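Predict both folds.
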Amino acid sequence: MRIASKADIDCLTTLILAFRDHQGHNLPTEDQLRDSLRRLLVDEHTQFFIADDSKGACTGYVQQRYRWSLWTQALQADIEDLFVTPAMHRRGVGRQLVTFAIAQANSRGCKQISVDTNERNAEALSLYGKLGCSAESPRWNGGRRVLLRQRLSRLRI
């Protein structure tokens, strides 16, 4: 596990395009993705973590964002993406990536970490549950409802 740098743009592009294709999307294009990565890899509020196999090939990544929380009065980490190549499924790569992301959040002084995942992704929900994530919020004495939003251009205000 390692923190990605600008030198990892090809590795991340390959992994993120595979993730995009896995989800059945055709956007972002490769050029759009590379442009976004150039911005995000130098953004102090964003980190990418990469898993490599024994031969040095990229096998998975996590994108993590950081923001100040009014409620905890500290940084909060948000795991935005987790993807592991299909050939590396069920080998602990996802668990290692998330564990590494949690350690990085702790090293920055984050008091909370959240995860963005599809509620129908049973495999991801199981992994996050085993690592202590829950939709129940002890801070608010009960459940928490996550509301999904459409693109802003589609919202009626």
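Second protein follows, with its predicted structure tokens after the sequence.
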Amino acid sequence: MLEPTSPIIVPMSEHDVDAVHALARECFRVAWDRHVFEEELARDWAYLRVLRPSPAEPVSAFLSFWLVRDEIHVLNVGTHPSVRRRGYARLLMHDMLGFARSRGVRYVSLEVRRSNGAALRLYTTLGFDPIGIRPGYYADDGEDAVVMLLTL
């Protein structure tokens, strides 16, 4: 009997751009243009990770973040709607936090829509604290963003 495979997380490559762009369009009201993912791949301080449920399956989730000195800023975490609530975003965040600790990062920050209860709960369980509000942060609808910070 075959054992089920665990999800795999790997750095995003140029071959993943179309899949990640399509996934972002499924996840967010306003997604990055395809060229933004290409630009992120070229930046020394930008890191993008993709998750596949198994090596043979397509990208189901992704995470992008910037590393600047001793801080990480999380830009995007997206999971395809058909596979949400399987812990994929949590796995990606744990992967990023392992990377952060290995690099001596002191702080991890992010913004999240005030209405995104699932993400707020996830980040809180990972140890992030809300430290402020960015009023009208999201250009598409003027929704506020909650600023969250994790001190490592």
